[in-house]
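Title: Prediction job returns without error message
Component: structure pipeline
Severity: low
Priority: P3
Assignee: unassigned

Description:
Job completed but the reporter wants confirmation the result is attached to the right record. Sequence as submitted:
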Amino acid sequence: MAGQQNNQPQNNNGSKEQDLGQLLKIKREKLSALQEAGKDPFKITKFDVTAHSADVKENYAEMEGKTVSLAGRIMQKRVMGKASFCNIQDLKGNIQSYVARDSIGEEAYADFKKYDVGDIVGITGEVFKTKTEEISIHAAEITLLSKSLQILPEKYHGLTNTDLRYRQRYTDLIMNEKVKETFVKRSKIISAIRRYLDGQGFMEVETPMLVSNAGGAAARPFETHFNALDEDVKLRISLELYLKRLIVGGLERVYEIGRVFRNEGLDTSHNPEFTLMELYQAYTDYNGMMDLTENMFRTVAQEVCGTTTIPYGDEMIDLGSPFERITMIDAVKKYTGIDFDQVPDTAAAKKLADEKEVHYEDRHTKGDILNLFFEEFVEEHLVQPTFVMDHPVEISPLTKRKPDKPDYVERFELFITGHEMCNAYSELNDPIDQRERFRAQEELLAQGDEEANHTDEDFLNALEIGMPPTGGIGYGIDRLVMLLTDSAAIRDVLLFPTMKTLDK
C-alpha cells in the first residue's frame, strides 16, 4: 500500500477530537448528499466481477496490462491531490488501486475523495506494477456499491475484544485475516470429508432434528413445543438411531453431517449446538471403523493442509504415522499403575476411587469408575493420535459386547491433543440385549441421571426386523477443525457461537 489514509473526518482514523457520534453523523450526511444527487449506492443491484485480488497477484504475468473488474471493501485510503491510492479487500485478499482524476473523470474523482474506509466499491482498470513493484489496479472507473454507516476498528490494532469478535463475526472477518482463513479452511475440511466418504461408497442422508425421543448419546436435550400437533418435542442430541434405521432398511453405508443440540455447559471444547458427522457401515466392526478413521484424518489433513504433520499449540501432531491403539484398562494401568482387571467388584473400585480422591456417585458401578479414572488421569496425556478401545458396558448402552469379555464392549474413542475427536462402536444389533440396556438407562433416569436414554420402541422394532453387523462412528467436526486450524477454543471455529444475550 502506498501509504496511510489522511486524517480527515470521514476516515476510519478520524480526528481525535471528534467523538463517535459526530463521525457517524458525517457518514449519514454523505449518504444523504449522494441520494439527493441521484447517486444512491443502495439502488445499485449488481457489479460484474471478473477477478479477485489473489487471481491478479498470482497470475500477474498473464494479466499485466489487461482490464479487470474487482469489488471489495476500502480498507485504506490516501488522497494526494489529483491522484490517490486505496486498498481493496475481497474474499481472497487485498489489492492496491491507483485512482487518478485524469483517468476516472473530475466528478467521479471528487466523489471518490469523499468515500470512507469501510465503503464497498467496484473498480475496473488495468493491471500494472507501481514504481515500488506493487501489483495494483489503475482505475478507469470506480463505483460506490454500498455505503458503510459504521466505524471499523482501527486497522493496525484490529478487533481484539474476544466477546465482541464472537458477537460481531462479520466485523471479525473483515478485520482479522486469520479468522477468514480459518472459516475458509473449515469449509474445505467438510468438503474433503464428503469427498472421502463418497469415494468409499457412502451415501449422504438427512434425518429429523425435532424428535419425540432424543437418544443416541448421554446428554440432556433441549425441549420445545410443536403447536400443530400439540406435542412436546426435543432437539436431537445425536444422529445415531435414525441412521441405524436406514441400515436396517438396506442402505449399507450412510452418513450425515448436521447440527445437534445438547443442553450442557460452555467451555473451550463444548458448545450447546455443534456439527456432528455420523456414519454407519454394514458388515464391519469397530476395527474397520478404526481403519476408516485413521485414513480419513490422514487424507483430509493432506488435502486441506498439504501435510500430515500439523502444528497445534506447542505440539506437532503426526497424522501420518500409525495411530496408537490401547484398551481403556491398559491406558489406566499405564498412567496410574492400577489394573482394573484385578479389581473384583464395585465396592473395591469405589475404595480405590476414595484413595485417589476421584469423585463418583452412589449409582456408579465398577465400569463407571474405570471411566472416571481414565478421564482424571489419562486423557491429558493423549496428545498424539490414540485409539482408546474396549470401554465398560455401563457407559456404552448402544454397543456390542466383546464376546470374550462381556463386561466390556467393542468401542473406541480417538484422542488427539488430550481431546476426544470421535466415538465409534461395533453396533449392538441384538434387540433383546438392547431392550435390557434401555431398561438399565430408564433406571438411571429414575435415579436422577438427566443424560440417560429413554427406551425407543420404534428403534427396538427396527432391530427386531433385523440389522446386520454394523460399525458406526460419530465425529465432532468442530474439534477436527480446531485441530487442523490450530485453534484453542471451539468458539474460534464456529461462525456464530452460542452467547448469552446482552441486556437491552
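Comment from assignee: result matches the submitted record. The first strand starts at residue 67 and ends at 80.
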